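Bug #77: duplicate submission created two jobs. Keeping one. Sequence:
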Amino acid sequence: MRFKHFLAIDWSGAKGPRQKGIALAFADGEGGPPVLIDRGRGWGREDVFALLRDDLPPDTLVGMDLGIALPFADCGAYFPGLEDSPKDAPALWALIDAVCAEDSNLEAGSFVADPRFAPYFRNGAATGLHFRCDGAEHGRGRFRVTEQAQAGMGCKPYSNFNLVGAAQVGKSSLTGMRMLHRLRGRLPVWPIDPLPDTGSVAVEIYTSLAALEAGRSVARAKMRSFAELNEALAVLGSPPVGGDGAIDDHSSDALLTAAWLRKVAGEARRWAPAQLTPAIARTEGWTFGAL
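Kept job's structure:
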């Protein structure tokens, strides 16, 4: 274990300067219960970006609940048939941020509305012509290899090209990729960047994976009471958090996942999933904990 601190971020792609769906929780490598980082007025994406850029404690493992790239391996490109489609994840991040340069609050509306890219997404009005690869057997859209691994573990991932429904992850992922571009050179993102020997690192997380390892089922992954949360924390060997009654699921997701990161980050197998090749690492990335 080389990390001293563990930060879990429950992210949001919603519009506006602040998002109710953002929650940050911190777990100390020395032990103790995870704690929420309270911002008083609530978190916005720009606030999270500033924290990661300027105020991150040394040797922190940062888990971000968002997709760090779009599917690539299934069609051989992020945007098959499009001239100059990006060749790797950092180029994708740069493209998204450039197209959305006028979008405030790290929003990504300009990207999904751009006629070059809209046909690859499903939004509330239409399913794009290229939402699926040719020959796809289902209508759920394209998936990365890591999302296929999640499904094999019993999870129910959504395509990052899907912008519809409460469980959609497309908007949050695109806004997160804008932030990752702006953090380029300051915070490595595994496995798109090699895992360095020292310093802080960001990884993609899927909070349902933490819940599964804490004894919850996929159907019961969301915890909305302190009693449920503390039962799950106990399974992970973490002390309980203070509180009684109800808790919002964004906070409970962040708290549980921070404790989970602390528990499993030292396990070598977490950093070497069998299906993670150099090409997939460079283009699609991976979800930490998907095996």
